[in-house]
Amino acid sequence: MSITVAGLPALSWSNGAGTARLDGESLLVAASAGTDWTNDAFGGPQQHGATSLGFDAAGAGDFSLSARVTVQTPRTTFDAGVLAIWGDRDHWAKLCFEYSPQGEAMVVSVVTDGYSDDCNSTLVPDGSVYLRVVRSGAGWAFHASSDGATWDFVRVFRLAFDGPLNVGFMAQAPNGDECVAAFDAIEYSTAVPADLRDGS
C-alpha cells in the first residue's frame, strides 16, 4: 500500500517493504525486533534489517526535510525515530532520536562510507525533538531543534556515492521488541539555509 504525505515527493521503501501508516497529521513508522543500520567500524557484521520510507532525491537539487520525531513505544537501548539517507549497504546516513545505554534520549548521527562514523550529539529532555536533513550542492547537513524554529548544527558530510539516494523516515529497534516512531510537522522545502551554522 502506497503512502502519500502532503507536500512530499512520492514515497517508497529503501531497503525492502516496511510498516507505516498515517494517523491524522502524523506518519507512523514501525520497526520490529532486531532492526537497525550499522556498518561496525571495528569490523563486526553489518546490520541492515531496517528500511526507510522516503523519496528519490535524484534531480531534486538543494532541499531540506524536517519533522518532529516522537517514539511512541516504551524505550529500549538504541531504539530511534530517524531521518535517513540510503544509497546502498555501504553508503548511507541517519539522524536519530535515539535512546542511549545510559537511559537518556539524545540526538545521534551516523554517516557511513564503507564503515559507520557514529557521533552522539545533544541530550533531549523532552519527549520529542525536531530533526532536519539539508542537501546543499554536493554536501549534506544534519540539524536538531527543540522548537522547529532555531536549529542546532549537528554535522556536515558528503557521501561517496553516485547512485540514487532515498531520503525519508525510519524506525529502528536493535534491542527491543519494537519501535514505533511518529513524524509530524513534516516540512519539505527547496529553500535551504545560506549559513548552516547560524541557527536558521
Instruction: Kindly estimate the percentage of residues that lie in beta strands according to DSSP.
Output: over 45%
Question: Please, how many domains?
Answer: 1
Gross morphology is globular
The CATH class assignment is Mainly Beta
Distance between the termini: 36 Å
Unreliable stretches (pLDDT < 50, length at least 5) are none
The number of distinct β-strands equals 16
Total helical segments: 0
Strand order of the largest sheet: 1-6-15-8-9-10-11
CATH architect. name? Sandwich
Mean pLDDT: 96
Instruction: Summarize the helix and strand pattern as letters.
Output: EEEEEEEEEEEEEEEE
Query: What structural category do the secondary elements indicate?
Result: mainly beta
- Helix fraction, binned, reads under 10%
Which value, in Å, is the CA radius of gyration?
15 Å
Largest sheet: 7 strands, antiparallel
Query: And the CATH topology?
Result: Jelly Rolls
